Amino acid sequence: MPKPLYQSLVLAILYFLLLGYCHYEFVGKLFDYMKFNSELDLLKVFVSIISIVLIYIVSYSNRLKYTYLQLVYCLLLIPSLVLFAFGGGGYDFYLTTMMACLLMLMASKLFRPKVIVSHQINTIVLSRLLLLMIALYLLGIIAQGGLSYLNFNLSKVYEIRDEANSSLHPVFAYLSPIVGKIFIPLVIVMSVIQKQYLYAALGVASSIMVFGLTAHKSPLIYPILILAVYTIPKRMIARLLAVGAIGLVAISILDFTLKQELDSPLLGWFGSLISRRAILIPSHLNMLYLEFFSNNLHYYWADSRLSFGLIESPYPVTAAFLMGQEIFSDPELSANTGWVGSGYANAGLLGVAFYSLLVGVIISYFSSLGERCGERFIFSATFILMITIILSADLTTVILTHGLVAFLLITMLIKRNAFH
């Protein structure tokens, strides 16, 4: 067994066991009102560990796609196995998740796409064009009275967000994710590589302004994540993803333990935000989606613009709001989930299979882009987009609204070996 694979396996199993302990001892008990359960099953623990070993062995390669697969396993596969083994998840949930990961893996290995190119332009010119579009986007918000909602206080974002967004033209609902998840990451990464630090600083400042004008917190985190990922050597990224996840879970366990011992209002928030909200809830929602839509009608993409309104929706609201209403009794809660839950909501197992194959194709294409333009550049530039696909959006929404098409069009303009 190659040493990198052995190290990845050890880290993956350690991550699974630590996250399982965190769920069983803390999350499942403290957040039972959110449908979490503490239910340890040793047979399921054994099945989960065997599954991790097998899928890691089959996945292993030295190409960029292996790094993307590791990201999927850290954010989707292992948290799902934790819910299965430590949280009362059923075998149907386990089999659906494994099917999704295996089909994604198969598609990523079998599909070997050629990169589509167009007229290629100087990358510094491209950075300037992207900065110009970002500036026009920010000026568009300001022209609609956006400065009256300008806020950099994290504690007030929920008070301001609805009003700030309702004051904007509906087209900005499409522009904001593209600017925040595609244009700004590309500007930051390209500028750092080219040592155009003024442009990189403008990209970071733009991300902060997007937060201030739209009251969405994610743009504050994006530059940090992008730059952190870019600085990691390519050969270490896959393993350091697991190391980072282990560290976050370990701090969460310490935080929850101190909360129980000291009962301070200052404690417990880190564990809740990271281990519960960021790591476990997306897979938890996948499980709840499967439970609900196993017994109710599917959407068949009735709410997607790809259906052109030809399919009548069986529900008055989208799947995310339907789950908020039916599962959590909160009609204003948007319970967004990634490709497994949204695929199942649309067409059951066929929907999951279709989305899984498509995710594998996307990963394979990103890998080919990395070989052509620079692997660290492509991975860091697509890092936020991949997290969105895995955790928080329907895949058709990612393609149309969250900027996947925009990213692919921009990469058509980048010269070969521009960022190697």
UniProtKB/TrEMBL annotation:
Keyword Protein biosynthesis carried by entry: no
UniProt keyword terms in alphabetical order: Membrane, Transmembrane, Transmembrane helix
TM ranges: 42-59, 66-87, 131-151, 171-190, 236-254, 344-366, 373-391, 397-414
Annotated protein name in UniProt: Oligosaccharide repeat unit polymerase
